[in-house]
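User: I've been trying to design a sequence by hand for this structure and keep getting stuck. Would you show me what you'd pick, starting by listing the structure so we're on the same page?

Assistant: Good idea, let's start from the same input. This is the structure you sent:
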């Protein structure tokens, strides 16, 4: 197992970490609030905050309203103290952004490339993106990619859209950039972004489902991303719905993706003689019963997939995201009806179903968040988000 390159960790001291993380998630706070919530002695706390202000990690942020006496000064976390670079590698496009510690995009870079690129091409494009987005105090680079990723060793094990198998992106990039580099599955990256900065901030147990070209899911258990033993958790698109169903691109029959994705919508658009998915969508919104039925079926099958997840994991919420969410008005009602109507007894009673908040940027923000999570990790916590 590879360790982080250099010691980027901010929080070598546990108490200092407590203060910074509390200000990051719940700030601004007064020194008295911080002392109460961390249990640190006021004198020790005052010294730590003075150090953090000197370093620029924390700033004083005005006065708190007080009914009597002198109003206490609030301190807040400075999200622009440092940033990370998030990258998403798509089939023919590399998108990158510099993201601050609050998950805000501060600068962008993108470049197209020819299909089925050599890994060396992508390595040089990531290097170029990192140069263009360079700023003071870059903590590292996170890369999100569709397919099966070995997060620990930074190996892209299998990526159909790039035609890659067992590609090591991380080690050559760390050597060139002299920064820590992390590789992550794209849906996991999106899930992490929603967990830290989006629809999942209030949930310690949730599933982020994505609908687009395929169907994916990221699973958050007890506040952390669950990657599985080999990094392949959350491949709900290949959950079998009907063993006698049509063949999936993975080689199996009747996977969820076959019934609920852009692949399904394209197939139905062709069968029913709509020019493309967009036209079929327009027809459905104009009241065309045949087109409405296509989207309702998709919602129904997605609901079956989600229901299986709910019965397995009993999450607080399902966060729905992905490119095809722009048609959610057409499939969400059938989806919700299926999930709520039939999930095993109490498992779905208080389940919340909410849209993802970060959109396409979630992939970039999530990739950067993998780096930031390492930065904020307390000395006792396990690695990687
Ligand atoms: Zn499949």
């Amino acid at each position: 197992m590879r360790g982080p390159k250099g010691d980027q960790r901010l929080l070598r001291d546990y108490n200092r970490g407590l203060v910074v993380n509390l200000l990051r998630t719940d700030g601004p706070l007064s020194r008295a609030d911080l002392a109460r919530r961390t249990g640190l002695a006021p004198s020790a706390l005052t010294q730590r905050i003075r150090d953090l202000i000197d370093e620029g990690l924390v700033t004083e942020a005005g006065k708190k309203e007080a009914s009597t006496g002198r109003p206490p000064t609030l301190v807040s976390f400075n999200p622009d103290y440092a940033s990370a670079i998030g990258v998403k590698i798509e089939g023919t496009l590399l998108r990158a952004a510099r993201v601050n510690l609050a998950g805000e995009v501060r600068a962008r870079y993108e470049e197209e490339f020819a299909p089925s690129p050599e890994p060396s091409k992508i390595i040089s494009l990531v290097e170029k993106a990192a140069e263009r987005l360079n700023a003071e105090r870059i903590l590292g680079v996170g890369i999100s990619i569709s397919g099966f990723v070995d997060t620990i060793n930074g190996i892209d094990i299998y990526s159909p859209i790039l035609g890659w198998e067992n590609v090591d992106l991380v080690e050559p990039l760390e050597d060139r950039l002299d920064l820590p580099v992390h590789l992550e599955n794209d849906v996991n990256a999106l899930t992490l972004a929603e967990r830290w900065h989006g629809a999942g901030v209030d949930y310690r147990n949730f599933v982020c489902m994505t609908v687009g070209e395929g169907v994916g899911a990221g699973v958050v258990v007890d506040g952390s991303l669950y990657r599985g033993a080999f990094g392949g958790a959350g491949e709900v698109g290949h959950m079998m719905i009907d063993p006698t169903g049509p063949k999936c691109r993975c080689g199996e029959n009747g996977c969820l993706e076959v019934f609920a994705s852009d692949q399904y919508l394209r197939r139905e658009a062709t069968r029913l003689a709509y020019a493309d998915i967009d036209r079929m969508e327009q027809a459905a919104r104009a009241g065309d019963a045949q087109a409405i039925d296509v989207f309702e079926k998709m919602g129904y099958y997605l609901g079956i997939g989600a229901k299986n997840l709910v019965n397995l994991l009993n999450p607080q919420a399902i966060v729905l995201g992905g490119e095809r969410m722009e048609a959610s008005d057409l499939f969400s009602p059938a989806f919700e009806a299926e999930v709520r109507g039939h999930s095993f007894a109490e498992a779905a009673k208080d389940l919340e179903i909410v849209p993802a908040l970060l959109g396409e940027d979630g992939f970039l923000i999530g990739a950067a968040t993998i780096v930031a999570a390492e930065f904020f990790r307390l000395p006792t916590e396990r690695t990687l988000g």
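That's my pick for every position. To get oriented when you compare it with your attempt: The chain has a mean pLDDT of 90. The domain at 14-77 is CATH 1.10.10.10 (Arc Repressor Mutant, subunit A).
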